[in-house]
Design a protein that fits this description.
The structure is a homotrimer of 269-residue chains. With 269 residues, the first copy, chain A, is of the alpha/beta class. In chain A, 51% of the residues lie in helices and 15% in strands. Chain A has a single domain, classed as 3-Layer(aba) Sandwich (UDP-N-acetylmuramoyl-L-alanine:D-glutamate ligase), CATH 3.40.1190.20. Chain A is built from 11 helices and 11 strands. In chain A, the strands form 2 sheets. A 9-stranded mixed beta sheet of chain A has the order 2-1-3-4-5-8-9-10-11, with helices on both faces. The first copy, chain A, has a two-stranded antiparallel ribbon with strand order 6-7. In chain A, α1 runs antiparallel to α11 and α2 packs across α8. Chain A is globular, with a radius of gyration of 17 Å. Chains in contact: A-B, A-C, B-C. Chains A and B meet through α5 and α10 of A and α2, β2 and α10 of B.
Chain lengths: 269, 269, 269
């Protein structure tokens, strides 16, 4: 059955997040900035978006985690990501990467690889197609949507995790999280999350929030995804479509509490 | 009365869209990116936003349509639009243009003209003031809002349509769509759509979605506007203001189906 | 008790805004663009976002007010703010500045100072930490969140207001507004506004809307903040969390009327 220790860990992480309200520094895409910021606030973190070369090093030095997302990338943004990332590495601040659309264009695949080659990344979260493309396997990404299933990418995720010494998370109907040794599966979530733009990007940001309070990247990632997935389940039951799902998801994130998490988190080892 | 064949065509287009889920490549403004992406998803398409010169040609080569919107333009974005547009023309991929704010500043008017001079555009959708300014008539645009009525611009739309060999759509209380020969009028819609930012931009994106599945630009445009307008009518009846209208509009788009469309689409030839 | 004259002034300003629908030119951050535009529309103004050097001077020449917000600043955006601001000064068009994150990084503090040194600004709205940093006092800003209380910053606000000949507004549980001589306190508002990103930025934009119709900067600012706060109170009573609060806030702004304002505006001199 589902792991009780990890359900408790989710509750502990949420409590710590709300007590500490760590600054989460995001260099992310234009489409999801507002949703991501609101989700981080509802979760309990203090989000900031900053991408100017003049300030990213200073900003990340106050942050509990750095979130890098290549969703609407251009060269100056990639440079800012590298600057902020190097500073984060110096300070031991965890970095989470969302390789949006890797596999869809050569520029995205190359950028994702440049980031993983240059920086020490704690966690990478993507869909199966993105993770396959990062692993150098022949993969296709349709714009920013996956055309491969999570299980297809398990081998690639394990290998990539070992190679990069990073936690890999592939999200889909069931999420897979691995640090190259252990494999966790997260069963929380709802298909409606796939009907709203930026739900994947937001998952990545919430992983950043838990990384700021939990030194175990694998558990921080799995508990963040499960907690977010649980909010998605609650929001789905209150909504009539993707439009009403969006505010309901933020409400659900905001109204999460330890009791709910201990009862309803569904992670398997 | 309303044309039954076009009501059926709307239903057919929606079905085809949901079966094929074509990638719609958007180079659009910062204000509406999130809403546009969510509306395309709710409609049934697969949206992507990409504007880097390194990737726009590659991205558009996978797309069923290219949506260009000059709402928060700067020179690098215009260059990206031209690159993506030329590639789309090469591949025969339809382009839809939203000349947001043409007539308001010389830069916007000149950019819209540069795009229409350089590229072969399938459809242009704007408000009456924007279309008048593109036709070179003395027009004013108040920021991004029309100060002219749709009927005032009918002559300009017909002339411009013939000159550019493009379908022209002027949206307003009743939308006018012409390919320079035929003129269609779309009666679906609700005034509340004017109280929310980006509803025009989103109309343009949804036209892109139908262009990806319907080779007849005039009919694709009119049926997209009517289908969107119908969703607007349903959303208005469920909302208390522009705030609740926004999620209700996405829900309504998502919950559209063939039966509703065949009954409630109101287009006149 | 609360000032009745200012409650009536709020009603007068809202009426004038809706009659005149002035164009409000925003050069603002990526996170809040959509929310700000929708809030201005719901309030009764006509928002436009434009930041290209080729058009900001022309665009601001049609505007009733210019809103500058440094939330996701880079150098080209700062240059556009300076260009638009100089033109606004030439034309006597009021400028409102939101120094988002001043105090958090040297770049933001320096930019905010450059803007206030170069331009004649009518109103500056920030949180206590941002205002303290502008006043040159030792302050800290946690990303974009205040770590100081409003009353701590009263002295700094008065001094800065006199030095810059500008109205200063510090928002928090109770907002403080001063022109260097008079001090007004605004009691409308709801703590939930702190759970949604961009509510401060939106307050700044709505001040811009009232500045376009009210030549008294102090009163325009206080009545805008009180009117917005009242909408926040109504939205809070209709929402279950920050997600549903967001659309409810836009609905409430849209549904405000003179009677409500005269009864419920709470400003003290």
């Amino acid at each position: 059955m589902f792991d009780e220790k990890l359900a408790r860990k989710a509750a502990i992480n949420l409590k710590a997040l709300r007590a500490q309200k760590p600054l989460i520094h995001n260099i992310t895409n234009f489409v999801v900035m507002n949703f991501t910021a609101n989700a981080l606030l509802a979760f309990g973190a203090s989000p900031v978006m900053a991408h100017a070369p003049e300030e990213v090093e200073e900003m990340v030095s106050f942050a509990g985690a750095l979130v890098l997302n290549i969703g609407t990338l251009t060269h100056p943004w990639v440079d800012a990501m590298l600057m902020a990332g190097k500073k984060a590495n110096e300070l031991g601040t965890p970095i989470v990467l969302d390789p949006v659309g890797a596999g869809a264009t050569a520029f995205r695949t190359a950028t994702a690889k440049k980031l993983t080659d240059t920086l020490s990344i704690s966690v990478i979260r993507g869909n199966a197609s993105e993770v396959l493309s990062l692993a150098g396997e022949d993969s296709q990404t349709k714009g920013v949507d996956a055309v491969h299933g999570v299980d297809e990418a398990e081998g690639a995720a394990l290998a990539l995790s070992q190679k990069l010494d990073a936690t890999l998370a592939i999200t889909g109907p069931v999420d897979l999280v691995t640090d190259g040794k252990r494999v966790l599966r997260v069963f929380n979530g709802h298909e409606r999350m796939g009907n709203v733009t930026g739900t994947g990007c937001t998952a990545t940001a919430l992983i950043g929030a838990f990384l700021a309070v939990d030194g175990d990247s694998l558990e921080a990632t799995a508990t963040a995804l499960a907690t977010y997935g649980l909010a998605g389940e609650e929001a789905a039951s209150e909504s009539k479509g993707p439009g009403s799902f969006h505010p309901a998801l933020l409400d659900a994130l905001f109204n999460l509490n330890s009791e709910k998490l201990e009862k309803k988190i569904r992670i398997k080892i």
